[in-house]
Amino acid sequence: MTSPTSAVVVGGGFGGLSTACYLADAGLDVTLLEKNDQLGGRASVLERDGFRFDMGPSWYLMPDVFESFFADFGHVPEDFYDLQPLDPHYRIFFKDGDRVDMTGDLDHVRSVFESYEAGAGDAFEDYLAKSERNYDVGMEHFVYEDRPRLRDYLSLDVARNARGLTLLGSMEDHVENYFENEKLKQIVQYSLVFLGGSPQNTPALYNLMTHVDFNLGVHYPEGGMRGVVNGIVALAETLGVTFHTDAAVERIQPRDPGFTVATAENEYEADVVVSDADYAHTEQELLPAQYRQFDEAYWDSRTYAPSAFLLYLGVEGDVDPLAHHTLVLPTDWDEHFAEIFDDPAYPDDPAYYVCVPSDTDDTVAPDGHSNLFVLVPIAPGLDDTPEIREEYRDLVLDDLAENTGVDVRDRIAVEESFSVNDFAERYNSYDGTALGMAHTLTQTALFRPPHASESCDGLYFTGANTTPGIGVPMCLISGELTADYVL
Fold first, then answer.
1. Is it the case that residue 380 has pLDDT exceeding 90?
2. Confidence class of residue 272 from pLDDT cuts 50, 70 and 90?
3. Domain residue ranges of the chain, discontinuous segments joined by +
4. pLDDT (tens digit, 9 = 90+) per residue, 392-442?
5. d(CA 433, CA 277)
6. Of these four, 45, 179, 354, 446, which has the most CB atoms within 10 Å of its CB?
7. Locate the Amine oxidase domain: which residues (predicted)?
């Protein structure tokens, strides 16, 4: 195929936005089609009666990735939004009544670890040093540099850079080499939820998230994650990207050469197509059968990251002592993970996350009110009925009151829920997963679906189901990798 001059990007999540920027910067005529009324994919916003909720991602992690992305176009993030460091990074309420703050003060963190287990302070320093090395080497040689084939790993360069990395084994086994106390294990593993895995099925390489947590810091972007989306969209517009929202793609038809991409109202022609829509949905619903790489049995056999049960709550008064980022954890969370990956069910004793952006940003709620959402990771594919939601909502709010002392049940001014059916309907996500394919050992790196279709020349994929994987920073990088394939 000759060098492409035009591209249609299907889906306006972070992967699609990133790919569009890189392709437009390279001179292509880029049109992006978004199914919903907002750009940003899962980073949508719900506005109701003076409250503004980030509906999806809310942790601004890995700031170096955002800096690298904007630098590729001659900018810094602050050209588009300001960042406010959070202190504490997050607060944990353990369900035995214990409470602890995690901050950017490593001496404080070291003392917290030591208070739970003799010698754990030193162990934390060793663990953090290992995490930092895994991050530095992993990002440079295995994240920003895509290796889609087994032979890409069979080289002296890979062997040299991988020496000493924690590549194999589970996070659970790795962490047990450092800590015995269950709470300390949870502190260094909670971020696995952001990767869509559990301690038992996530590769030990992802201990690099501890470096992200403690060394790179946790920030709040001006305007929340919507501020980040708006910044990237503004950048894309300066590069010449054309956006169409409320434009659900119904068909991707390969031609010779190029493609026709059809919505209900229009048809768009382009040399190449990049899909940031759900990978399985793109192949199974938008492509003619002869151009699909995988059949339904393949998608059914994958291990998916959790879905989520979400409550968006506008509350009268304050919600102290909840912090901007708060975790509520049972002292033994194995049963919750089992109810996600082994025996799917709504967890009876859930581990969950509470976000209170009004603790930092007074624009997200009316005066005298608080803005919060509660996120419980649950198995994808669960039954999701109004009756189930109402019953589980009561369980979660009861649990919040019992274990944090914050009872909002009689103070709710605005309430919305979002769960399995909504992820499937709004984002076409397989089985209603909130994130995509989990980062198990057999679904990491070259074992994830490819960026360039192996069955349809000129069709490419970006986003969480490709490499490097789940999370906003990873999707930004995925966009760069996909653009490299196209170009």
1. yes
2. very high
3. 6-82+222-302+437-486, 105-216, 304-427
4. 999 999 999 999 999 999 999 999 999 999 999 999 999 999 999 988 878
5. 13
6. 354
7. 15-487
The dihedral region occupied by 164, where left means phi > 0, alpha psi between -120 and 50, and beta the remainder, is left
* Cα–Cα–Cα angle for 55, 59, 63, rounded to 5 degrees: 135
Tell me the average pLDDT across 449-454: 95
Q: Measured between alpha carbons, how far is 271 from 478 in angstroms, rounded to an integer?
A: 20
Question: In one letter, which amino acid is 333?
Answer: W
The pLDDT of residue 153: 45
pLDDT tens-digit profile of 91-147? 999 999 999 999 999 999 999 999 999 999 999 999 999 999 888 887 776 666 765
Unique residue bearing structure tokens 């009876």: 348
Reported confidence tier of residue 192, pLDDT bands at 50, 70, 90? confident
Cα angle 220, 225, 230; round to 5: 120
End-to-end CA distance of the chain: 11
**In angstroms, rounded to a whole number, what is the distance separating the alpha carbons of residues 115 and 101?**
13
Q: What is the pTM of this model?
A: 0.94
How far does CA 110 lie from the centroid of its chain? 28
The torsion angles phi and psi of 192, rounded to 5 degrees, stand at -60, -25
How many angstroms separate the Cα of 159 from the Cα of each of 146, 168, 354? 16, 14, 41
- pLDDT the model gives residue 152: 46
pLDDT reading at 269 higher than 60: yes
Interval 210-259: pLDDT, tens: 899 899 999 999 999 999 999 999 999 999 999 999 999 999 999 989 99
Fold of 6-82+222-302+437-486: FAD/NAD(P)-binding domain (3.50.50)
